[in-house]
Design brief:
alpha+beta; N-terminal domain of MutM-like DNA repair proteins; Helicase, Ruva Protein, domain 3; four-stranded antiparallel beta sheet; 28% helix; elongated
């Protein structure tokens, strides 16, 4: 799933390509992806792009007629950029393309989604806050106002596992499964530590790991075209997606815990005092 750093990379890329350019085409080929009807998708045609912003994992493309194209790539979505947009007809149900947008200079992009579980979401709204997912977002962890005390306040009284807290978009915006693994590894913390039970020192470490890990990943994504962002993300991972490999810090073996539709990765030596966490496929409880 694209998370904050990759989404910010897309935003930076699009900002340098589409601002000031007229939209000449906006075609939905996966009706399930379009979550709004007023204004219609055709409201984008003839408008000029005035800005591109990020809200958590959402991309927001603003136009001079007041319409915003807002999309969330979900688990298997991506943006495919073309310097010259293909002239082929996009046939509904026959392609992974959910949306095609064309621009007056001949360029454009597709939003695509792999797999059978379709969760990619496209909205055309007058105000990004009208998108329910954006309205529910917590603070952005790279916002200058997101200080250590703000972070500590979000953790207070939450007797839930810290992995889940980091992934909850209503608490902190933009972090998903992959970067929560990376943040917890840097902080040398078990993914199942209770948020409310963290010590002052642990909160300090986790806050620094959160900010530093995301800032480094955003810097690594900056300037890369969409086609390179996924591979850059994978190369930058220390533990996520690296089950069975050596931890880059201690050399221990990276382990996984599997769930119904995803997994988490961690280093037992760095994060759990050598203890192997129970696999959810085999045990209901993590001791």
């Amino acid at each position: 799933m694209p998370e904050m750093p990759e989404v910010q990379g897309l935003v930076d890329f699009l900002r340098g390509r589409v601002v000031g350019v007229e939209v000449t085409r906006a075609t939905v080929s996966a009706i399930s992806a379009l979550k709004t009807y007023d204004p219609p998708i055709t409201a984008l045609v003839g408008a000029h792009v005035t800005g591109v912003e990020r809200h958590g994992k959402f991309v927001d493309i603003a136009t001079d007629n007041g319409a915003h194209l807002v999309f969330h790539l979900a688990k298997a979505g991506w943006l495919r950029w073309y310097e010259t947009l293909p002239s082929t007809v996009v046939r509904p149900g026959k392609t992974p393309i959910a949306l095609r947008v064309g621009l007056a200079d001949g360029s454009g992009f597709d939003l695509t989604e792999a797999g059978t579980k379709k969760s990619l979401a496209v909205h055309v709204v007058g105000d990004p806050a009208d998108v329910p997912g954006i309205a529910r977002l917590g603070p952005d962890p790279l916002d200058p106002g997101f200080d250590r005390d703000t972070f500590a306040g979000l953790l207070a009284d939450r007797r839930t596992q810290i992995k889940g807290v980091l992934r909850d978009q209503s608490i902190i915006a933009g972090v998903g499964n992959a970067y929560s693994d990376e943040i917890l590894h840097v902080a040398k913390m078990s993914p199942y530590a209770l948020a409310a039970g963290l010590s002052v020192d642990e909160i300090d470490r986790l806050y620094a790991a959160l900010r530093d890990t995301l800032a480094e990943a955003v810097t690594a994504a900056s300037g890369k075209p969409p086609a390179e962002l996924k591979d850059a993300k994978r190369r930058g991972m220390r533990v996520h997606g690296r089950r069975g490999e050596a931890c880059p810090v201690c050399g221990g073996e990276v382990k996984s815990v599997f769930f119904a539709d995803n997994s988490l990765e961690y280093c037992p030596v760095c994060q759990t005092g050598g203890k192997i966490l129970a696999d959810r496929r085999l045990s209901r409880l993590l001791k």
